[in-house]
Design brief:
Blueprint lengths: L4 E6 L7 E6 H9 L6 H12 L5 H14 L3 H12 L14 E6 L7 H11 L3 E6 L9 H6 L10 H11 L1 E5 L6 H12 L6 H14 L4 E8 L8 H17 L3 E8 L7 E2 L1 H12 L8 H16 L6 H14 L1 H12 L4 H4 L10 E5 L5 E6 L1 H13 L13 E4 L6 E2 L6 E5 L5 H11 E4 L9 E5 L1
Parallel strand pairs: 3-4, 3-6, 4-5, 6-7
Antiparallel strand pairs: 1-2, 7-15, 8-11, 9-13, 10-12, 10-14, 11-13
Helix pairs in contact: 1-3, 2-4, 2-8, 4-9, 4-10, 5-11, 5-12, 5-14, 9-10, 12-13, 16-17
This protein binds uracil.
Uracil binds next to helix 9.
């Protein structure tokens, strides 16, 4: 095997303009030696791989070198730009207002989009958002929306824009040709141990946000056992990298670093998370509830990034008014109707979690709820049918689980720690075992951990 060569187009007018041919192996070695690639070399790698000219084995080797040795800030920005330009760039200029998007790096029980986006729209914001599907232990907003019978997330661009113009928000699936380089790279990262690695995660996320037309971007970077970044320091490095890329590209970008050592909401499952989001928007949750509080903080940043509020206090006040008036819930329902959702379910959301049976899960000991492994709780829900083990698996939207405890709560052996929503028993035992192993019961009350570690602007 001789590997590929790439045509490196020299675009800098100060140097010799033209094309040179380079061996991909030399670019891999450069990154492995921590020598920075030129902008043109990075573009050549991305376009060569997207066109199928660079074989998977060389791209994998290069991405492994990136994971191990990192990239400079300039290289990461250029990688993002090259990926963004690999496909269609969505133009939202004909929509009024600052188009604001919100992105979470992936968590368990995270329905913040379904709470924050309608509240921002109710305050006059313009939320035109393209979202993804869930994979593994993390949920995806598209799957949650599709748990409402009738809802279609595959909209034409015209319909998407019409809904945003009418309601102030719409969340749809990514268009087919959005950042094809990322689709190919992500599939390879998934099977070559290169999903982690800040330059690759940051460029993957930001290329899609930039290509989907967002003018302001708020990032929710998760830290903890259920997240890519297991600690707040790594999450901050990822957040800083993404915020810098966004601002460098002229999009107002901000991030929150939030905890993912336990599920954010209590519900983990698609229909169950729609129900919980609607409860939050009905004002049924306490303002200090983790899910509602993080959603309000993200929504406040979205208002600030859109120029609709100057301070977090002003933004929070606006959001609380829309929460109390029910206008946030109204916007979510309007969006679901506009996307085809059936009234019977939108008005009676409990029907979204109609399953054959409910199974309570009890702890083996009495004590305090200590460390939780959010990832394993997500996997337990996935085993019940709420998530995909691999791309293309079919989801059962009514299944999943509802936690009854949070870190620091006191329980006895007779208090259920969770209720499972079950249609198919085949993996129930494994799901129960997985959930119990994910929740430590301790004799001492554990220390408190924050919901939000840091803000990065
Ligand atoms: N989400 C993405 O879109 N890409 C990553 O690399 C990680 C999370």
């Amino acid at each position: 095997m001789i590997g590929a060569t790439v045509q490196v187009h020299l675009r800098n007018l100060d140097t010799n303009k033209g094309v040179i041919t380079m061996r991909m192996v030399d670019l891999i070695v450069k990154t492995r030696r921590k020598e920075a690639l030129s902008d043109d070399e990075i573009h050549a790698i991305v376009s060569g791989f997207t066109k199928g000219e660079i074989p998977d084995y060389q791209m994998s080797a290069w991405m492994m070198a990136v994971c191990l040795e990192g990239m400079t800030k300039r290289e990461i920005s250029e990688l993002t730009l090259a990926m963004m330009n690999s496909g269609e760039i969505v133009k939202l200029d004909d929509l009024a207002g600052v188009k604001v998007d919100k992105h979470s790096t992936g968590g368990v029980g995270d329905s913040t989009t379904l709470i924050a986006a309608p509240l921002v729209a109710a305050c006059g914001g313009t939320v035109a958002k393209m979202s993804g599907r869930g994979l593994g232990h993390t949920g995806g907003t598209l799957d949650k929306l599709e748990s409402v019978p009738g809802v279609s997330v595959e909209l034409t661009m015209e319909r998407f824009k019409q809904i945003v113009a009418d309601i102030g928000l719409c969340v749809m699936g990514q268009t087919k040709n959005l950042v094809p380089a990322d689709k190919l790279m992500y599939a390879l990262r998934d099977v070559t141990g290169t999903v982690e690695g800040i330059p690759l995660i940051a460029s993957s996320i930001m290329s899609k946000k930039l290509a989907s037309g967002a003018e302001a971007i708020v990032l929710d970077v998760k830290a903890g056992s259920g997240a890519f970044m297991h600690n707040a320091e790594d999450a901050e490095r990822l957040a800083r990298t993404m915020v810098d890329i966004g601002n460098h590209m002229g999009r107002r970008t901000m991030a929150l670093i939030t905890d993912m050592n336990q599920p954010l909401g209590l519900a983990v499952g698609n229909g169950l998370e729609i129900i919980e989001a609607m409860e939050a928007l009905s004002g049924k949750l306490d303002e200090n509830d983790h899910l509602l509080n993080v959603s309000l903080m993200l929504a406040a940043k979205m208002l600030i990034a859109s120029g609709l509020a100057k301070t977090a206090e002003e933004a929070r006040k606006m959001l609380m008014e829309k929460l109390a008036s029910g206008e946030g819930l109204n916007r979510l329902k309007k969006m679901l109707y506009a996307m085809g959702g059936k009234e019977e379910y939108i008005e009676n959301p409990d029907k979204l979690a109609a399953v054959k049976r409910l199974v309570d899960v009890y702890p083996d000991d009495s004590g305090y709820i200590g460390d939780m492994r959010a990832e394993s709780i997500g996997v337990a829900a996935q085993l019940l049918g709420a998530g995909r083990a691999k791309k293309g698996d079919i989801i059962d939207p009514a299944t999943g689980l509802v936690m009854h405890v949070r870190r620091g709560d006191r329980v006895t052996k007779h208090d259920p720690i969770a209720t499972m929503y079950v249609n198919d028993d085949s993996h129930l035992e494994d799901a129960v075992a997985m959930l119990k192993s994910a929740v430590a019961i301790t004799a001492q009350k554990p220390n408190d951990i924050p919901m939000v570690y840091k803000e990065v602007d």
